[in-house]
Design goal:
alpha+beta, Trna Endonuclease, Chain: A, domain 1, tRNA_endonuc-like_dom_sf, Restrct_endonuc-II-like, UPF0102 protein MTX78_01895, UPF0102_YraN-like
């Protein structure tokens, strides 16, 4: 069971990265880590927007929608990672936090994009 969840997580991140790339996002990092913060995907949207993305993959919506599983602690860690990324990349522009919810469907994996999801 844990192996299936791990595989769904990996497949979900790949589906999310492909989904964003098809929309024109440039994927800069996968699995970006800073201290205890892990950001699933870091992407650039155009020349002036850095997007930190949490991918939430769930086998079903039985226990709630994937996008509702981002905790306040996770949001705090994302903000810390964003500050560190701004310093390392010397990024003077805006940063946005998105969630991509991935669930299985008859056609494969369904991806829903929630822009500016922390506010």
């Amino acid at each position: 069971m844990a192996n299936q969840a791990h595989q769904l997580g990996q497949d979900g991140e790949q589906a999310a990265a492909s989904f964003l790339a098809a929309l024109g996002y440039e994927i800069l990092y996968r699995g970006y880590r800073h201290g205890r913060a892990e950001v699933d995907l870091v992407a650039r949207w155009g020349p002036h927007l850095l997007v930190l993305i949490e991918v939430k993959a769930r086998s079903s919506n039985h226990f709630g929608y994937p996008e509702t599983f981002v905790t306040e602690r996770k949001k705090q860690l994302f903000r810390l990672a964003a500050e560190q990324l701004q310093e390392n990349l010397m990024w003077p522009h805006d940063i946005r936090f998105d969630i991509l919810a991935v669930t299985p469907s008859k056609e494969g994996l369904r991806v829903e994009h929630f822009e500016d999801a922390f506010y």
